[in-house]
Write the structure tokens for this entry.
Amino acid sequence: MAYTINVNGTSRTVDVEADTPLLWVLRDTLDLKGAKYGCGMGLCGACTVHINGTPTRSCITPISMVGDAQITTIEAIGETEVGRRVQQAWLELDVMQCGYCQAGQIMAATALLASNPKPTDQDIDDAMSGNLCRCATYTRIRAAIKHAAGIAHSEPTET
Amino acid sequence: MTREHALLESAPDTAAGNTVSRRAFLAASAAAGGGLMLHLTVPGTAFAVPSKSGPGAELNAYIRIAPDGIVTIAAKNPEMGQGTKTTLPMLIAEELDVDWKNVRVEMAPVDMQKYGPQFAGGSFSTPMNWDPLRRAGAAGRQMLVTAAAQTWGVSPSECETSAGVVRHKPTGRTLKYGELAARAAKLPVPDLRTVSLKDPKDFRIIGKFTGGVDSPAIVQGKPMFGIDVTVPGMRYAVFQKCPVFGGKVVSANLDEIQSLPGVRKAFIVRANDAAAHGITNVDRLQEGVAIVADSWWAANKALQKLKVKWDEGEAVNQSTAAFEKRAAELFREAPQKTVHKEGDVDAALASAAKVLEATYSYPFIAHAPMEPQNCTAQVRDGKVEIWAPTQFPANGRTLVAKTLGVDESDVTVHMVRCGGGFGRRLSNDYMVEAAWIAREAGEPVKLIWTRQQDIQHGFFRPGGFHHFKAGLDANGKLVGFRDHFVSFSGADGDFANSANITATEQPARLIPNVEFVASLMPLNLPTGPLRAPASNALAFAFQSFFDELAHAAGRDPLEFLLELAGEPRVIPPPEGANRFMPVPGFDTGRMRGVLELVAEKSDWANRKSLPKGTGKGIAFYYSHLGYFAEVVQATVNPKTGFVKVDKVWVAGDVGSHIINPAGGINQVQGAALDGISEALGQAITIERGRVVQSNFHDFPLLRMNQAPPVEVHFRITPNPPTGLGEPALPPAVPALCNAIFAATGKRVRKLPIDPAELRSA
């Protein structure tokens, strides 16, 4: 069945079954490989995209539920001012190890900072605890969020 | 079996080799576009891969300098987040004397004859490459200097280099590397014995915080990982094996599956006669049902409708409960074997002022890298092409060749960035599955496992059971120690992979009377190396029991550990330790150094001033050539028993340089948190031969709200640099459990930590 969805500001028509998760439409139909498959059950956050600005687990979001909502993926997050700052902070602190979860982490962090420019540690816990990092880069994710927000932190950065 | 042993299986004739500096030489050639290409060839290096067709192994680094001065450096080893794709090229760039901003890094092809060992495991990349790759860079620099000197008609000794430029000191003339590369490529290559290395005080790249070379692409979501690979005409596959390991397919509803939307083909994969093909690998092809579809979602949907009648085989009788029951029985029986014996433990215990006994146990654990197992394969005209996130590509190539009955030279494996490895991707089961399915399908396929398949079909960290008995003298000094280790045996009857203990486990060789005895239970489940294999489990049991002993003696656990270390001295490695690579002795001074450093940084002396319910624990562990002491502070809720880890302090000694502090500190923090993650919640349990857990709801990983700050301190010592992927993990587990004891007076003797056991109100 054909669905027309709005991805990163562009209208895209895809012919997939109604229960196909948005994740697999993005990855395999639209060739946007940034969102990742991690668990398929909304447990890890590797597949996080924004739907109308809200961080959403694309692995459990059927295409039929998307409608005309604005979908933003990691590929376009740098086009927003907050997203660009988050990406930059991720690089300046060298947050990632394997990097597989980091698209989801960046999407979650960007949504947090877009609605809460100066988050507390508790705010960061609340916003980020749904995103697993098997390499456990949490120390740097927390610091990078603060770095992007202009809040002091004690992790080293690229000089 | 340790990871080292696992790797040795693929290179049984490995011997300690000659040092790189005596044997290495360079080969030069002109690069496309007129630049310089350097191949570093080092026969007989530390890790020698025997070759029936040649005189030994080659280690090869690869430098290309374009006329515009851009330097392309090949990264020889798989990248799984441990950072070698950045760190190893940094070594070359430093001695080549170029600006890092002008360096581009490319993944090397898999060619162990040309590049030497190419694997990610054992924290070996740093110790094995520190010397040879710097010499590769230095040799390149020397050729460029010679080319400049010839151009000017001067002596090379009058020239110096800086950031990609050769300068003639007396006249101040300069030439850029890009201008010299073509001429340099025609020069004879220097003997690596003669190349001069920088004085470390002149390092401009080594020791500098350097972001990962792939990071800019990753933050933009560019396709980087195995699961992102796309090849023309590719289909998608799922593969279902029996939930009981080794089970066979009796029948399946293949007709129904093939009629489902998007499904192109469904078929049974028979385990081929491995023995007939000389395949002994535990990661060999297992039986199952493959579904090939137009999309992965269609394949996965069909998988939900798949009905298979399995012949479950003997493994169906296995269970965690039965293992626990049998372990308790074995503790009451005479041990089956002696692993290590020094002195007279019976006599020491008989004369001890105090004797302590305790039983410790830990569960099986899955690796669960964030990127589920996957592989893309294409079989065409007898040639097999593989794109795989793998830690050991050459092993996978051999396995694929043998299984498909083709020449190894007809199998090409591309190393693709791994979304985590942790030892899981040293096994290449998913690679051989993808190759087989692609051949049967007659189309290229990308096989992706579901998370459930990843957790249930692992090469698990083996569980284990220890009964300790130890004696203290009147001064509270440890005088005798016995461990009866109930572990698992593999197919050969010996310790299963990573289920072993060796003569280096402390307190062996630190006190006079030590005995490690073992009894093994047969296991019909694959086990394998998980980050810091064997150590990640043994550290918990041994270092927790040391803490028990210290408390029983009424002593400060730090002081107890320092006494165990004794006077600074080097204990030679046990016989056979050099088989894999030259292994230095154990330096008790380095052990003391990190213990004293972590005590200072964590304010250990004032730990008694913490509020009730909060405590600090300390532990030391030596693995993968790294010395690590860690202190954990934890708070236990008296009502719920929930453990909050407040902070971790790490002191590590991996030698003279932290090559890349960016990745190095990250590895240490991640490893310590990985250990805490394992301790707090991870267990794989078996019922009726099946793994019970299936996803992150019942196999939990540490989350942001549970992750404490991890403060990392390195003690710099004049020793060759060693790796950081693993050694910070093992001590985190006992340090946490010892902190829980300090907070609650309750001793954690079984992992994972059970809050119900820690309630006090």
